[in-house]
Amino acid sequence: MADGAYLRALAQARFLMFAAGILAAIIMLSGCTIDGRSSQTPTPEIEPTPLATATPTPEPTATPEPTSTPEPTPEPTATPTPSPTPEPTPEPGPDLSEAPFPLDCDDLEMEHDAELQEVVDSRVGEFADGFGIVVYELTTGAYAEVNSEQSFYAASLYKTAVMYELLRQVDDGQRSLDDYVVIDSYYASQDLGTLGVFGWGVGSTITVREALEASIVISDNSTAFLLGDLVNWPRIDDTLQELGAIDTQYSLDTLPTTAADNSRIMEAIACGIDVEPESSQLMLDILNNQTIDNRLPLYLPEDAVIGHKTGNWSDANHDVGIVYGPNAVYLITVMSIYPGADERMALLSRDVYEYFHPEAYKEDHLDELRPR
What we know:
Layout: H1 2-30, E1 111-112, H2 114-124, E2 131-137, E3 142-146, E4 152-153, H3 158-171, E5 180-182, H4 185-188, E6 205-207, H5 208-217, H6 221-231, H7 233-243, E7 256-257, H8 259-271, H9 277-288, E8 305-313, E9 316-324, E10 329-336, H10 342-356
Parallel strand pairs: 1-3
Antiparallel strand pairs: 2-3, 2-10, 4-7, 5-6, 8-9, 9-10
């Protein structure tokens, strides 16, 4: 009986062991632990590769900027960076490639022209005492004048002398038009409203060429003062003395000058006196692009070429120029103490041009003048 109970207990134990084994196998096959969590390491999900036709091409702006921060670029310390110069505002003047320039004035002798003198006198009339005038034809030597040695305040006429001396020094190798200059607070303080035309101000770095063009084309004071200091004002006076402009002193605050002296400066430009032909041509090109055209150029024909410079102050109203026409090349210097003399100066310029070119205004009448 005891043996039978033992055998039954043994059989039951073996059955339980067999059942436990089967249960364990079932659990292993199902991949679960006893607490219900997966016993396998999860495989990360991989997004399916999209079809090429299903993915739109991204816009260039949708590309994210790189997250890495680039190393900062060091500021330049040696070479100054010029200020950006906007497109120049003045319209270009006539093509001067065919102009006879510079003129050969070596054997030219001045000869007073009585008829030309009558043309000049008839236009200034009773106001002659307030004018200084020189008209000088550079191929024949014919000239007329009114108070040519009378002293006037130069106003901005000094800028032609600064330009001439600068180009002399460039030709001598002392300067380069590509050199850089800086407009500091002193030069900016000389501005009368033109410095901002090119977007310049205190601290602007520009080339000598840019400063030169601004000083003439829009008659900018800041750049003219800067260039005058650069080339040295007493040296400008010395150069003028050498040219025979003995009554002009631009190293003085009073800026005294005469019509005769300004005529000599313009003659030096037109005839290439003591400067290279390329420098003479450059000066005429810059003068030709002058934007203040309400005096000498106003009633000239469209095909006339004029390089000129104006000057204005409360007691100064001037315009000096070099005029190229088919029949004549002449200097015309008109200085006045009358602020309202613009129209009279423009008419005088027209009269002088007509004297040398009688057919130029054949279809015009004085009351129907056509401004340039």
